[in-house]
Fold this sequence. Notes:
Elements: H1 2-20, H2 23-42, H3 51-63, E1 67-72, E2 76-82, E3 85-95, E4 114-117, E5 120-123, H4 130-146, E6 152-160, H5 173-179, E7 190-201, E8 205-207, E9 210-213, E10 215-224, E11 228-229, H6 239-257, E12 265-274, E13 280-281, E14 284-293, H7 296-316, E15 320-329, E16 332-334, H8 336-350, E17 355-357, H9 368-371, E18 376-384, H10 406-422
Amino acid sequence: xxxxxxxxxxxxxxxxxxxxxxxxxYESIEDKVITWRRHFHEHxxxxxxEYKTAEVIANHLESLGLEVKTNVAHTGVVGILxxxxxxxxxxxxxxxxxxPVTERNDLPFKSKVKTTFLDKETxxxxxxxxxxxxxxxxxxxxxxxxxxxxxNGTVKFIFQPAxxxxxxxxxxxxxxxxxxxxxxxxxxxxxxxxxxxxxxDVGQIHYKPGGAxxxxxxxxxxxKGKQTHGSEPWLGVDPILIAAKIIDGLQTIISRExxxxxxxxxxxxxxxxxxxxxxIIPESAELIGTIRTLDPKMKxxxxxxxxAMVSTIAKAYGxxxxxxxxxxxxxxxxxxxxxxxxxxxxxKVAGKDSxxxxxxxxxxxxxxxxxxxxxxxxxxxxxxxxxxxxAPLHHTPDFLIDESGLILGVKALTQITFDFLNN
Length: 423
């Protein structure tokens, strides 16, 4: 009993240090975090092209006295902060890339960046909140660097490029970071990350133990028909018609063959390319889409049925079709023990009523690849603008967050670090 009491008192002392001795640091860092976020938002860069973003990050980490590595997985930055005493190693990860989206918001720091993406002119926008994640982690690094004498262990700050996926033909993202040794030297014991959500109220943290986000497969279907004049379709084989039948058929795999009471699953077509002229039935069509699954057996079944169905439908209409698959993310799996260990930390920081357990979602996140190697915990941070009934969605031109929610992210990751290393 006496030993348990000593452990409890020790933990309480460490915990209260983080809670009460960092107030001034949080107050001084909040404006900086918002300023950084606005800078990154105004100057977004696409995956594997985050050169200026990486430069700002590296300069900041170096100014704090951290050991800094650049050009990791092309444009990634890693900072290492060593505590006063040896101990465990914790990694904190933020993604730094933007999206090929043209912003519609009327903000003083609105993105006006233009580029060519896959041969199309487009704007560039932080339409998913990676600018917020980067700024939050820079803030955490500054706060922790001031109190490294209170840390028993090492903190590895991972600023990762290409979370949205590297350009075609390139490697990148978490997979390449891991391949280049980001979890080694020193070896990481656990990794944490967060994602701001425009639909979650500011001040709230949402989490899910176990499978939290879906495995994502990218697929391409190539349909081959026979070209003919639009006035004489009977002389050819219409690949556009076949494509339409394939799209319709694929949805039956979800609605009629997948056990949705077990886990959710989704098949979506995001791009169709075919034809060059209004009066020519073309020779071919290409469909590109995604499969989202939370259960490995369901994923295997869906892929197997897609391969069979696509070729069969095409053959039934006189054509040919084949499907290729590319893994995009694994299941984002939050280690149960790690969640149980750190849940009291989140509740202490945000308030017990503001930390909410949710159901799994079918979005994907390449943070999942880190979790295949070490225990990890990834949670959502509220960013819903105040007095807003329905917030603009992620990956849209209207995406918007309330910056007053950023400081909670700083507090959460900072306190997680203290409690994980010192407990």
